Amino acid sequence: MERANHINIAMIDNIDINGSAGSKVAAAADRGGPPLGSTVSFHDIRYKVQLRGGILGKKESSGKEILTDLKLVPCFVGSKIPVVDILAARKDPAGLSGEVLVDRAPQPPNFKCLSGYVVQEDVVMGTLTVRENLRFSAALRLPSSVPQSEKEARVNHLIKELGLTKVADSKVGTQVTRGISGGERKRTSIGMELIIDPSVLFLDEPTTGLDASTANSVLLLLKRMASQGRTIIMSIHQPRYSIYRLFDTLTLLVSGKMVYHGPAPNALDYFANIGYLCESHNNPADFFLDVINGDSITVNERPYQVSVSSRQSIEERLVEEYKNSSYANNTRDELDRILQEKECFPCTKSRTITYNSPFFHQLRWVLKRTFQNLMLNPQTSVAQVGVHIFLGLVVGAIFFGVQDNQSGIQNRMGALFFITTNQCFSTVSAAELFIIERKLFVHEYISGYYRVSVYFLAKILSDITMRTITSVIFSSIVYFLIGLKSTASAFLVFTLTVTLVAYTATAMTMAISADQSVVGLASIFMTITFVFMMIFSGLLVNLPSIKDWLAWLKYFSIPRYGLAAVKVNEFVGLTFSASSSMNPAGLTCTGEQYLEYLGIEYSTWGLWVNHVALIAMMLAFLLIAYLKLRYIKKFS
Fold it and tell me: What is the pLDDT of residues 76-125, one digit of tens each?
């Protein structure tokens, strides 16, 4: 691969208070011949996870060790343990011990921002094209000092190198809309990481969800990149033989312990020497899995003898055989040599995320992508507008032309109650904002694309825009069809109140869903919360009559503040007649008297107090949502 004009991101020299790395870029000229990848070595790696048990899910003090004395250099890993996540510094470092060296130097704190990491489930924006996704990665992960023309050249080069030329301007695709194939999607994910030209590329089961032919083409691409000087470390489950023979180094783990680490072509001979023969027609990867699981017998065993030995004893024998093998000795010697040549730098276990672009540059690109995703996803844009228009017409038809009499009071109360309650329940869709894109956000945040505040602000601005549009449309339809107070100021206050209710309810939805991973569960929590708020809104029960030990709950009801504000806005200044056949003379009731009966402060001050309360609740919920996102501990 031609590597002139090649950009290297420096490991880290210093970090300022904003998390930005100093001295980030160094131009490297092509020295001729294939470039050398970084040497990553792992010394006595242990990783322990804290198990959760009991009803409250409290952490157990002992925990479970899932990696034990891992000693290896770059390799292919066969294991059901998330070992690649651990080696790539994508897991919580609290349970990690041992030492990781990169080119004989301690692993830098921002290693996860400098190395490439392709997750098992492709995390790319499905509503954007392949080229737009790569441009997004280039804009945020390459330093600001790199000219835009060079970033575009990098994108075009990767599209050509990854064989994506024909689909470069095709949308990746979502669960609803069809897009590119699985192999092309996987190559796009790889391209997102190759933008920074990392010397080390981690992949977590890159063949997941791909057919045999597509998986083979993806691995051939990785093999070509490895031959061009990039260190590639991956995990994979039961690859076909044409894929297995591409590996240079193989590591096999059982219960977090190594049973083989060495050249991949020598693995069959190694197991044959300890008594496990692979039949000529058997796939080596399937054979290794059978050996580890105790489903393969040695040459000295008979089939009925296998059941006598427990799986644990087989694992212990495999681990012990490897410890006494020449491959283990060679690995220890090589690691000792690396330690002797280790460069002395201050070592820290802290994990740091560094950024190559300033705050407003990140905000511009993330906001642009968010609005693109919103506009190109009719399920979240056109559908919401259509639903609000439909509901507005239905409500307007039901309460059409209210009168200034006793029925008019009832109809006004019912219409205003439905409008404010509907604004709350319609925001349940906001739960998908964080839940659906959770994996995408976590991956991009940890990789140093953008700050949490940038992502959060972009999501808030895009959702507020949509809520504003739908609230104004809905208010305009219902207000004039129902025939509410016919003054411009009253209409503007009504629209403002309905919009504020939508904002506050959306903020609460975000606060609840920010740390949830299942949309259905978050929807249940939000629905229950809104139901309790609806009870204390002021229509279903007379609030002054509620007992003191329950009355305090009304202060946490979003519909209460919204309903109180629109009632003050509508009823003040109106006079209602209560004439009937039994009361031909008729009695009159002013709107102020009715509001006083309900216990609502109907002065202008009381109106704006409700607005201030909605704004205060909105800000509080947004703060909770932001803090939940900011302190996410999930690294995958």
Answer: 445 545 677 777 777 766 777 777 778 777 777 778 788 888 988 888 99
> Which residue did the predictor score with more confidence, 491 or 631?
491
Residue with the larger pLDDT of the pair 78 and 451: 451
Question: Which domains are assigned to the chain?
Answer: 75-93+105-298+311-341 (3.40.50.300), 359-631 (no CATH)
Rounded (5°) CA angle 332-337-343: 130
Nearest to 188 by CA among 154, 159, 146: 159
DSSP for 480-537 reads: HHHT----HHHHHHHHHHHHHHHHHHHHHHHHHHTT-S-HHHHHHHHHHHHHHHHHTT
595 residue type, one letter? L
Cα–Cα distance for residue pair 465/471, rounded to 1 Å:
10
162-166, 387-391, 513-517: least confident range: 513-517
- Evaluated on CA atoms 174, 180, 181, 184, the torsion sign reads negative
Radius of gyration of the chain (CA): 32
Q: Are 634 and 441 in contact (CB under 8 A)?
A: no
How far is CA 14 from each of CA 22, 109, 275, 362, rounded to the nearest angstrom?
Answer: 5, 11, 53, 21
Q: Which pTM was predicted? A: 0.82
| Mean pLDDT of all residues in 446-461 | 92
CB 114 within 8 A of CB 9: yes
Q: What is the pLDDT of residues 362-373, one digit of tens each?
A: 999 999 999 988
Whole-number Cα distances in Å, 153 to 103, 124, 228: 29, 21, 20
- Average pLDDT of the chain is 81
Phi then psi for residue 273, to 5 deg, are -70, -25
Q: Give me the residue label for tokens 């030990």.
A: 549
The pLDDT > 90 percentage for the chain reads 31
- Rounded to whole angstroms, how far apart are CA atoms 114 and 141? 9
Distance, in Å, from the CA atom of 517 to the CA atom of 202, rounded to the nearest integer, reads 25
H runs (alpha helix) in 279-405:
284-293, 311-323, 326-340, 359-375, 382-398
Residues with Cβ within 8 Å of 49's Cβ and at least 6 positions away in sequence, in order, are: 63, 64, 66, 95
Could you give the C-alpha distances from 417 to 225, 275, 407, 565, 566, in angstroms and in order? 63, 78, 15, 11, 9
DSSP codes, 99-112: EEEETTEEPPTTHH
CA distances from 4 to 29, 232, 546, 623 (A): 6, 21, 76, 47
H helix or E strand, kind and range, residue 58: strand 58-59
**For the residues 339-355, what does the mean pLDDT come to?**
67
Q: Which of 241, 243, 247 has its CA nearest to residue 74? A: 247
β-strand pairing of 105-106 with 96-102: antiparallel
